[in-house]
Amino acid sequence: MTVTALVSAKSCGVTTSALAMTLSSTRPSLLAECDPAGGTLRAGFFQAQITAGTGLYHLAVAERAGEDALAQAFAGHLVRLDASGNRQVLPGLTDPAQAPALARTWPALAQVMRVLSDEGGYDVIIDAGRLALESGHLHSTLTPAPLLSGADLVLLVVRATDTSLALARHMTDPLRNELTDRGSGADALGVLLIEDGPRRAHEVAEALRLPVMAALPWEPDTAAYLAGASRTPRGLKKSGLLSSARNALGHLHAAASRRALHQQYPTAQPAPAVQPSPAALPVPAAPQVAGVLQRLGQGRVDPRV
Ligand SMILES: Nc1ncnc2c1ncn2[C@@H]1O[C@H](COP(=O)(O)OP(=O)(O)O)[C@@H](O)[C@H]1O
Ligand SMILES: [Mg+2]
Prior knowledge:
Blueprint: E1 3-8, H1 14-24, E2 29-33, H2 57-63, H3 67-76, E3 79-80, E4 87-90, H4 99-102, H5 106-118, E5 123-130, E6 133-134, E7 137-138, H6 145-150, E8 153-159, H7 162-181, E9 189-195, H8 201-208, E10 212-217, H9 220-226, H10 240-264, H11 287-297
Parallel strand pairs: 1-5, 1-8, 2-4, 2-5, 8-9, 9-10
Antiparallel strand pairs: 3-4, 6-7
Bound molecules: adenosine-5'-diphosphate (ADP) and magnesium ion (MG).
């Protein structure tokens, strides 16, 4: 399926959108909360029911012991969003000071995400948080750049306001450059528009010179529930936010499939001036990483039955 990473220039709905997409997916789904500034799901949606003993930070520790240890630890640090175990969350860091420890773990985690998507049929949604820059590039410890370059699609989440667009504009070139140099190409980049403001999709696309790949409505009641601030609202599954999130995943999957096809058969394209770097080519997953799927599959129930 699709690995989609969500990022922003300033807090504007990354976590809410990522959770809405994970909850509404019609396939097995995994939300990886990889915001280096720290996760909010633990205190928010999960209402402090998950201890610091579970989550992303422990994978950095496991990865130091080798890929097999990482694969084993990965499944053990997921939290189920439903009884069937078809929707799962990897809770994020409890302290931003933990972020530097993850710097060398991101590439291995990017591989795990690939295996889950390509071989396990998961919709993988990465909450990559708010971007940080250093000298015009993505910051090496405050942004999980390897997760972005390893994703099928990277969505810059913006609100439909001029302020949000003004802030997002500074992020488009660093993102394009990262995806060109180390990812699968700048066309992996698009916008997820949160419809809170007067700007329409075509205006957003024009302002940022990026396609608007998906949009979600502004829906405070559902968003408050997803932030753990209110009880389950009536008709949650049919809410505009979750229905749109489900449609958004469909559009994203179609966009990612079109890209993959285009990269496989680039017949109509003139030869690129710059050859893709070796890092942009798919790296076969280590067998230990592939073992993560087996561990994840244990106890999972088919969502269609
Ligand atoms: N679609 C939406 N409709 C209404 N409120 C939203 C929506 N998305 C996010 N919010 C609200 O915006 C605030 C920031 O959202 P959050 O997802 O935490 O942003 P980020 O992860 O980018 O920091 C929260 O109060 C959240 O409830
Ligand atoms: Mg967030």
